[in-house]
Amino acid sequence: MKIQNKRLFASILFVLISVLCAAQGQGPPFPHPGGGPPGPPGFPIDGGVIMGIGVALFYGVKKILGNK
User: Fold this and answer.
1) What is the pLDDT of residues 46-62, one digit of tens each?
2) How many C-alpha atoms does 12 have within 13 Å on its Cβ side?
3) Is the pTM of this model over 0.70?
4) How far apart are CA 14 and CA 63, in angstroms?
5) What is the separation of C-alpha 37 from the centre of its chain, rounded to a whole number of angstroms?
6) If DSSP codes are grouped into helix, strand and coil, which group holds residue 44?
7) 17: closest CA among 9, 6, 28?
8) How far apart are the C-alpha atoms of 59 and 42, rounded to whole Å?
9) Which of 9, 10, 23, 59 has the fewest Cβ atoms nearer than 10 Å?
């Protein structure tokens, strides 16, 4: 089997396994111990993400212009 065929086979297998894992879904949530109300939802997406995107864009533009 050629290396190119092995890579294609491995890629297809990886995609199929990923799809099967994503299709499993989650069961019902477990009840909160103690009978009280559940805690608040996860942290909101705030300024940190926007700051990270800005830094990434700046770095990318700097790299592209630096190569010329």
Assistant:
1) 778 888 889 999 999 98
2) 6
3) no
4) 32
5) 30
6) coil
7) 9
8) 30
9) 23
Phi, psi for residue 19 in degrees, rounded to 5: -65, -40
Residue 64 amino acid letter:
I
Measured distance between the N- and C-terminal CA atoms of the chain, rounded to whole angstroms: 42
The residues, ordered by sequence, that sit 6+ positions from 38 with a Cβ below 8 Å of its Cβ are 32
Give, in order, the Cα–Cα distances in Å from 67 to each of 53, 54, 57, 60: 21, 20, 16, 11
Q: Is 1:7 a contact under the CB 8 Å cutoff?
A: no
Report whether pLDDT(39) > 70.
no
Which residues are CB-contacts of 32 (< 8 A; sequence separation ≥ 6)? Answer: 38, 39
In residues, how long is the chain?
A: 68
Burial class (CB in 10 A: 0-12, 13-18, 19+), 59: exposed
Residue whose structure tokens are 């592209």: 64
